[in-house]
Amino acid sequence: MRRRLVASAVAALSSLMLVAGCSAEAESDPLVLRVASGLSSQNLAWTEGVVPWMEEVEKATDGAVTFQSFTGGELVELKGETHALQTDVIDIALFLPTYQPDQYPLVEVSMLPLKQSDAVIGSKAWKNFVESDAEVYDGMSFHEWEFGSKCRASDLVAGPLCRS
């Protein structure tokens, strides 16, 4: 039940953002989502990505959706985020697949050594891998092949790697 509620809340976020200014004050308790990352609270992805996003969601929903944050392995250790999502320990996770090669073995393909490379070339390669619809294996794109089985809507709240 909670999983459906969370999935519905996240899916409806876009609509809520559009109508937040027109809605009446929430009469029920806010939906509190547990957000976790094994990364430090000082990590740039957290401070410049997740925190501003949570603040925007809370503002856009007039407090109807709030967050309880856990970082630095406080609730979920680094590399344990996917399991924590699947077992309802948390509702949303910030994790970097490159830190989990046992679960996401192909994510480092864009970091293979080349004759000439740098961080920009590697970042663009990663972006192209994730966004491309080109078939790379058995009729699947890189994204479908690497992340598809881990991104079922019934198991996870969709995020940037779990796109439809």
Automatic annotation (TrEMBL):
Q: Which Gene3D superfamilies match?
A: Bacterial extracellular solute-binding protein, family 7 (3.40.190.170)
Q: Which organism is it from?
A: Brevibacterium pityocampae
What are the entry keywords? Signal
Q: Which residues form the signal peptide?
A: 1-20
Q: InterPro entries of this UniProt entry?
A: DctP_fam, TRAP_DctP_sf
The answer to whether UniProt assigns keyword Cytoplasm to this entry is: no
Q: What is this protein called?
A: Extracellular solute-binding protein
Highest taxon in the source lineage = Bacteria
- Phylogenetic placement of the source organism: Bacteria, Bacillati, Actinomycetota, Actinomycetes, Micrococcales
Query: Does the UniProt entry include the keyword Signal?
Result: yes
